[in-house]
Queue: 2 jobs
Job 1
Amino acid sequence: MRKHWLIPRRTFLRGLGATVALPMLEAMAPPARLLAQGAGAIAPAKPLRMAFIYVPNGANMDDWTPARTGTDFQLPPTLEPLEPVRSEVQVLSGLCHKHAFANGDGAGDHARASATFLTGCQARKTAGADIRVGISVDQVAAAKVGRRTRLPSLELSCDKGREAGSCDSGYACAYQYHISWRGESTPNPVEVDPRQVFERLFGSGCGDASRDRYRKSILDFVRDDADGLKRRLGKTDQRKLDEYLTSVRELELRIENAGRFAAKMPNVDRPTGIPPGYEEHIRLLFDTLALAFQTDTTRIATFMLAFDGSNRSYPFIGVPEGHHDLSHHEGRADRKEKIAKINRFHMTQFAYFLRQLKSMREGEGSVLDNCMIVYGSGIADGNSHNHNDLPVLLAGRGGGTLQPGRHVRFEGRPPMTNLFLSLLDRMGAGTEKLGDSTGKLESI
């Protein structure tokens, strides 16, 4: 009988200046017969991942909110792109961020919306260096479980962060361009360049210049190690390894092409690797995040599709006007229709990300089965700038602890931080209090 060969979960492919993590393989778990015989080997638990995806300027809530609660609900127009993964998603209505309201501080709802989104705290109104809000939920988790992975957390954005200056009605720009805070006065810098994110995931620094010089793939540097590993794997793992390495190479090529094409655009100063198209930029970052989760390079991430207050236009979907301008719709049907188009565009990209995670096999299920992904905004209706009944989704099964495929409405305006407490418990990073939390949401 062939001896079962095991490899550690933290196995890497290595080469000159390159380190490539591996997805979960059958060879990383002992066979059931060994466990039954009491061989002392314990199958590694599937890691739980947590991500927070932020969209700006609220939503056209008429096209967002399902009419019925429970499992028997119809996806409204904005959520229709989720149809292929509707069984993996919960729509959560009724959650509130009371500290995103003015509470005596006057204008500045966009700055407060993003600053409060993951902290549940009132941002100090200042345009100077004396910023203060609170630690965010992702960093509470990173402080407790981040040491188990190569990167404690990953912070992504399609907009370069601004650390200084005044942006929204006397609020510092740091509030508006960041949702991840590792301390009450310290926002986490964001990564906007897919190439730089790729290098953080797979490079160690010294080999990056060599790859550029000789135009080699990162896989060329780890080929010998990969071939040696493959010869010792079973057929199922061999196929899984081939599929994974192919996906890494395809992403690498897309990032390289994005950099080349962006460089040819006249009068545009773009960092290498950022594509000229917004949709491709979002998808490249989503793809790198999916690989980071698949390889357990990190378990915690945030991603701002755009900063709150963004006035980006969307001519490629028939919306040439600025997003922020349109969000002040004054009840006009034509403007609300265009906001709904923008909302649907963002939702289409999120659905793409969920499909990617669902296609990544992990044990008997998928990577998405072991994820908890919050998608939403710190503003509900952009015209009224309200911060109650926020547009919020929760995707994934949380390792079997969540009940997706439902629309849940919470009464009494519970703080959104109650949701975060519940997720932190599942991550093994439980805490008694976060921002304005009052307890845990039990029915998720």
Note: Residues 1-45+195-273 form one domain.
Job 2
Amino acid sequence: MRLSLSSVVTIVTLGMLAACKMGGSAESSNSALGTAGESCSKDADCTSPLVCIAQACTTSAAAADDTDGGSGNKSGGDTGAGNAAADTGNGSGNGTEDAGNGNPGADSGSSGADTGNGNPATDSGSPGNPGSDAGSSPTPSGGSSALGQSCNSTADCGSGLVCIPRSGEATGVCDIAVYPVTPTGMTCGGECQTASDCCELPLGIKLATPGGTSVAIHQCQDILQLVLGGDATACANQPSPASATGIGCFYFETYCGSGDGGNCGTSTWSCTNNTCQYTGSCQINAANQFGGCPSETRTGVGLITNCDTTANTCSIETSGCQTDTDCGNGVPVSDVSGATCRGSDCTCYNQGCYLKCAQDIDCQDGFSCNTTTKLCEVDPPCSTNQDCVTKLSNVQAVCNTGVCGIPCSDDHDCSPSGAIPSLGAFNGTVCGSAGFCTSVGCSSNSDCQSSSATSVNTFCVTPTVGAAGSLVVHSAITN
């Protein structure tokens, strides 16, 4: 059949109009679609198989679940109205799974899924933190997102990972679900393993030279050269206890070993339950003077400074008292060298006289006043939740059988993993078997090496409750 030129023009024109009504050719349509990272308002704006998440074309596994059956940027399952989720849904908006009304999530909870109204998480977690089955650890689902990559829920993350919210971000980040560490039950609390470990000068000592100049002491040679004139025999000449030479000799012989010219060793200290106990003899009832008792160990732990001049040992002095009236004027105070009772300021305990306390501020740090016995006693770890809130600076802290703890359901409740720098560094605690944050502890002495110039190295030991020589009661330091 022959067509006139006018007929051809008419057919082409009609074809073009039809193509316009159908949205254009496949080629022109594809050229208008967004590629990965380009802006969008719905899935249809993106080149397949990309989908529209947070107004950007992406390959997110979370958004690719099931069928987009509603209007908006990705309608959620079961009339969801939050941000990208899964399941076939007819609801409008940016829905989450099961009628979720918030940011991406799954199941019920303020930050979970199923009506989740918080940040990305799974199940019924606490607001703002990734929840998981009302307290149990999240179960990774083997998604495609790797460690450090963004996610909308744990289902997005690879095996062994969990989706953790990020402050100020619309999406979370995949992090380690269960930390690969187990608490050892050991602590860096040991002062010693042998008696010779106790032969070390405490930090922060300042001594006077014979000329009256005050000098900072960092090592035993400082005492020998600056205070004793380079000759340790000055100590054999029985210097006056309170003189510069006498005090210098006290520190030199108490803390300095034979390698430095001192006498410190097994005859001076013992290592009992990994704590340093002074076993040297004393002749005068004066602390930190030649012939007296030391007031602290190498780590600064306080010691009994009273000298029993009959037994020549540093120990609690018992006067044989039976009642407070036996602790009258001039009776020595049992645990404070050189102190004596005055009037009614002492109380009798285990045949020893102690200075009374009336309130906690009368006691040294770490002790509180027992208003019944009038003695300063070692502080219990806690008696109320409020004690722990203050001590740990955490409103979630509780007092559990005298021990402060922070309840937890997974390791992330206790500390960031440290694998994602933006989330914070690992603080050394994990969620223990009792449901409280627990220190991972140490496994060797190398874990206890101090990097601070104001602290000393300690030993990795199993904690001992009620270590020998520890002070249970103490006199008031003021009243």
Note: Residues 78 and 219 are 74 Å apart (CA to CA).
